[in-house]
Amino acid sequence: MVHRRDDRSAALEKRGVEVVIADLYDPDQITDAMRGMQRAYFLPLIEPFMIQSAVAFCLAAREAKLEHVVQMSQWTSHRSHPTAMTQQTWLVDHLFATIPGVAHTVFNPGMFAHNFLRTVDFAALLAIYPVLSGDGRAAPVSNEDMGRVAAVLLAEGPARHAGRSYRPTGPQLLTGREMAAIVARAVGHRVVAVNMPFWLLGKVARQQGIDPYSIQVLRHYMEDMKKGTFSFEGGVTNVVEELTGTPAETFETTARRYAALPFARQTLYAPNDVNHLGTLGTGNHFIEVCLDQADHVWFMLHSGSRGVGNRIGSYFIELAKQDMHDQLGSLPDKDLAYLREGTAHFADYVDAVS
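RESULT FIELD:
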């Protein structure tokens, strides 16, 4: 059951999975999707009114007479947590446990590896790894391992797992700086760990179109990590191996997979880029204090593209030339090449300079 069709749902369909589109706030649509099912996995929406979708899911599960629901919760689930998302998760924990005739299993991982690898492009392209969690430690668990655990819980069903709670983690507690060293191995070059204020990363995330609510939620979880929440009582479990028979994958394994994704490709990387950030750059760039005939003080600045921008521009100019050759055959002058709006390369260029 998905919100909408996209590349992910298409990949599932290619594997023979029946995909149903439903509004997770509409109990009637969810009920229709559940008919004929026996077991279901509830993955909460990261949205301000998530609990409404959980109520709709509960009503549908009861109407469809499911035998078992596996519910993703959170390590930090508590009625007094500072973020509404986690407070609602605590309510959902109790709500799902009260569905008449439906067995319930809680699945409450700690920090996702994804939370620490969504900035792997910073490391790959700029040789910077933002550290948002101070000296706090966590054992990041991969999406793949969580998916495998959820699949086992559903496949084995309520006979083994009804009323139980499982906390999968990665195999090792790591600080942000230790993660930076691992990410450096994954991207294949030196990476500088930078203690970055969350407001700065949040600004970049908003420019990239990430939902503000998701940013706010992540900020609270990074604060939890700073306080030692995810290293409490050892912070590492053997749940992944106990349930699936395979050890939890290492953070480096996950990081290498992320580093191979298109958004982290290193076509534009040069080792000196990190030294240009926050500077005038190189070459003939300068800043000059000027005094005019009226005794006014002026600052004259010439900074240009600072190397990084030059590489971005050069890279996309070459792509534009190739696109024009493929689309038009030839141009009166090769420097007339441009990227057409609506094409993948045009969208990539807008992302690169945003």
